[in-house]
Write a structure and sequence with these properties.
With 158 residues, the chain is an alpha+beta fold. It is built from five helices and two strands, in the order H-E-H-E-H-H-H. A two-stranded antiparallel ribbon has the order 1-2. The longest helix is centred in the N-terminal third of the chain and has 27 residues.
């Protein structure tokens, strides 16, 4: 009777583990198929004639599971980390990155003064000229320096 209780406990534990494994496979979404396996047992439950028949070894076919997915979680995580690194490098800049970008812009501006050079100021005037080719067909916009700050609305409303 003590062995029967142990067998019941082992069966219960195996069924719980099977539920967890099935739930994990479903949640993680990996591909797999059932596969038949031949398993050898130390006794023969069909040997009902005598105790010697029951204690003989037997082999049975069970249905198991085989992973069919070529990739594993580490492969997917490496791809995600690579993609997130690309996104981070494109969308997030640190102060040193901004300084590097400005230094790169200075290389495109002729003259020794870089961004502070007269050529840069001339370029900005050309772009901001309301009658220039860059602004043809667009409504005139006021210069940023010419805009006087609006006084804030009085407290409590209009």
């Amino acid at each position: 009777m003590r062995i029967a209780t142990e067998v019941m406990a082992a069966k219960t534990a195996a069924l719980i583990a099977q539920d967890y494994a099935s739930g994990n496979a479903s949640f993680l979404g990996y591909k797999g198929n059932e596969v038949e396996r031949r398993v050898q047992y130390s006794f023969n439950p069909e040997g009902t004639e005598s105790l010697d028949d029951i204690l003989k070894s037997s082999t049975y076919t069970i249905k198991g599971w085989r992973n069919e997915d070529r990739d594993n979680v580490a492969d997917y995580l490496q791809r995600i980390m690579f993609a997130s690194g690309l996104l981070k490098s494109v969308f997030f800049r640190s102060k040193t990155d901004i300084e590097r970008v400005i230094a790169g812009l200075k290389d495109f501006v002729p003259g020794s003064g870089g961004i502070q050079d007269q050529d840069w100021a001339s370029f900005l005037r050309t772009i901001n000229n309301p009658e220039g080719a860059f602004n043809a067909g667009f409504p005139a916009k006021p210069e940023i320096d010419d805009i006087t700050p609006q006084s804030p609305p009085p407290p409590g409303g209009r």
